[in-house]
Amino acid sequence: MTLPGESSLYIERLCNRYVVPDQASEEMRARCEVALAANLERTLATALESSFSAEDSSLWFVRELNVELSVGSRIEHADVGEIWAGELARVLVDALDSNQPDVLHFPDRASYLAQFLLDLAEGSAWGRWYYSIFDGLRMLSVSAAIRTAILNSVHDGLRAMHLLSERQRRVLIHAVNTADVRRLLSAFADGPGYSGNCLSPLAKHWHVGLRFRVGDEERRSLSLFLAVTKEHPEFAGRNLQKSAIAACRLASLLHDHPQGAAVLDAIRVGDLAALYKLLGTDAEPLTALLHASSDDLNELLLHLKGEPFPASAARPEMRFTAFGGAFLLLPLLDAFPFPAATADWPGMGSLSPATIVRLLILAKCFGREQAQGCMRDPVIRDLLEIPPTVSLQAIAEWQTGISPAHLQSLLQANSTWHRDAAAASIEILLLTQVAHKGAPVSLLIDCAHGMWLNAISRPGDSNPLVPVHLDLPQPAELFCHESLIELGRNAFPQSLLKSLAAADEGVLPLPSTLVRDLSYLSLLRDLAPLRAVDLVLSVVTQGVLRRFAAQLPGFGRSSLNYLNRNFLDCCAAVESSEERIVVSLAPPPLHLVLAKNSLSRRSYNLSWLNGRLCAIFPEG
């Protein structure tokens, strides 16, 4: 699987077909084959020399090349290879200029490797013909194949990782197991690198690590190392590696260690003995922080927990969050009648149920993989007025006190909210069933807008959880899954029931899309222990995201994961005062669409913050 280090042309298979008079066929074929074996390599190199610069590091892949040429039967033996090579060179150069789909170009080996690694992580590499050079990796697991491809040439591997976008690197890192992540980080850092302060650039790029769970220190460390070295290649070395590991270990300790404050004190005064007394062997990675300056430590801690070390009286002027897309969704969350819908729900100490549900809905907007990070994010918590002392476990336990009647009121408020805004028409409904987590889920959907109105985990069960009708008006037509016809007839007796097969193409959402969106919205069991609660919250979240997508012409029916990756997946710098919140929003992939529809530059007031103004602007 080693790519050539110098200019070369590799022909995987050469098939020759000769059209000659019968009496000369074998003789002519033999003459040509001997001449090609003896002269083609040399003559082809000479013929192509003028077309390619010796400094050109690009790679070209041509799936198939058809060359037709005539060779006289009396031609000299030595001239056959020259004629053949000249015609082959001409056709090859023409093919490279043709932009044909079977001709691919990569600027260099690192670009080729980067695309292979990304396709490998996304599961599509082995279906692409131009990766045959990597066939030796087919039998390996995805993680082992990625590790082997990178470590075969660490220099190209590191450059390949730098060529990927932040989102693409995150996909790749998630595809690699913990042991291979450690091996990759160690290989990338195999050198002295920069010996000075590494905490400042780590703090600057801290938002990159927030995309991984707090306890996933290895992946966080690798992502931070790559983000820093992409901007500062000279930092690649052991010092940056140790600093990244130390910063990620500190973040984990501050998140869940009962003596986090004592750990900070020990680091601030450089007390190694106190660290080991508090943490035992877990203290070793933190020793990289003991000799850092107070300013560097404070800068790092501002990003880790939103405030400097305890000894400092300074307060941060700017804070950062990896969930900048939340500021695009806040007006919709504010418009939803959470206080009225949860008026009789149980509270949690001083927290209102509306506050907790608002946090859960916002977290679900970022999908299953990022929801936990959103719920822990200090900027998001402050914005929604969730104290840092409220644990995710406490929020999960609170959900066990939610009754079917509580869920009914939330679903009723959701359908009314959509109907009042003409975001759901209720003229044509779909009652269908899809597989989800090993058990069927029934969905009631407004076909005109793709809006979910209800989700039931066990239709027909004696459990009276959230009746399907929700006091909705009778639709003119109800498309019904064959297993739910009786349920549909009871819920909407005046509607015309139709089978799914009777629908015109494009009227009903595809079952595969519904399955993907359900999976995207589903929270981990640790965050949502009750399936019924999770499903109802998913219904409300789907409506929020559909209302957001409706503001983007052409993207109204995009999958929820697509909306996240292209519009919500961005960081933000947040400056807060008593009067206003000013947000500088980093550009997501389709930021031009947001700008065109005036979504990335706007102001609004948040009712739960007593009308406090929130103003967002695109970065720069």
Description:
Strands 3-9-10-12-11 form a 5-stranded mixed sheet, with helices on one face. It has a 5-stranded mixed sheet with strand order 6-5-4-7-8, sandwiched between helices. It has a two-stranded antiparallel sheet with strand order 1-2. The protein folds into 3 domains: 22-106, no CATH class; 109-320, no CATH class; 404-551, 2-Layer Sandwich (Nucleotidyltransferase, domain 5). The chain is globular and about 95 Å long. It has helices at 25-49, 77-96, 109-121, 142-151, 154-163, 166-174, 178-188, 199-204, 206-209, 217-231, 238-256, 260-269, 272-279, 294-305, 326-335, 338-341, 353-365, 368-376, 378-384, 392-399, 404-420, 485-491, 511-521, 531-549, 560-568, 591-596, and strands spanning 59-62, 103-106, 319-321, 428-436, 439-446, 451-456, 477-480, 496-499, 572-576, 580-585, 602-606, 612-618. Helices cover 47% and strands 10% of the residues. The chain is an alpha/beta fold and 620 residues long. It starts with 24 loop residues before the first helix and ends with a strand.
